[in-house]
Design a protein that fits this description.
With 166 residues, this protein is α+β, with helices and mostly antiparallel strands. It is built from five helices and five strands; from the N terminus they run βαααααββββ.
């Protein structure tokens, strides 16, 4: 029953305008929105405000709250490698350096769609033993799926280079 879609990106968008140029920016599936959210998070360490602006686009009519921005700061400060760990080629041993072009797989399961307006999809981190969720909401008037909650950023295994026990 599970479905997986894989997305490949040649680069991380630097702005909302660049993000909107990507074919996935139609947001017509929760898979596309999830993949773009992870791609945009790759920008967080270098440009937090730019990342927030792109996430606002992916959130649609519900922009990021101060709490959501603080949540990212709490989860990613000093641990930006977490986001990279979701892309192909990233491993604990290589300090979560993904291969280029950036490739990410997004999956659902039989419980992903409690109704026709909500979805919980999953991404796999190389530093975790189980998949991590992302929650999305559909806007019926446009058919677009928007990011609702980033639930995939709990801690993972630290990169081998940073692990005193490695």
């Amino acid at each position: 029953m599970n479905k997986t879609e894989t997305f490949t990106f040649s680069k991380v968008p630097q702005s909302v305008a660049e993000l909107q140029q990507l074919p996935e920016a139609t947001l017509d599936s929760p898979f596309k929105t999830t993949a773009l959210a992870m791609l945009v998070l790759m920008r967080w360490e270098e440009d937090k405000e730019g990342c927030h602006s792109m996430l606002d686009f992916l959130r649609g009519p519900d922009p990021m709250s101060p709490f959501a921005k603080q949540f990212l700061r709490d989860r990613l400060t000093g641990k930006a490698y977490k986001v990279a760990s979701f892309f192909a080629g990233a491993t604990v041993e290589n300090s979560y350096k993904p291969t280029l072009p950036l490739t990410i797989s997004v999956s659902d399961n039989p419980y992903s769609y409690p109704d026709d307006k909500w979805a919980t999809l999953y991404v796999k981190s190389a530093g975790a033993d189980s998949v991590r969720p992302m929650k999305l909401r559909k806007k019926p008037s446009t058919g677009q799926w928007f990011l609702n909650d980033i639930q995939c950023l709990s801690d993972i295994r630290v990169p081998a280079a940073d692990d005193p026990w490695a």
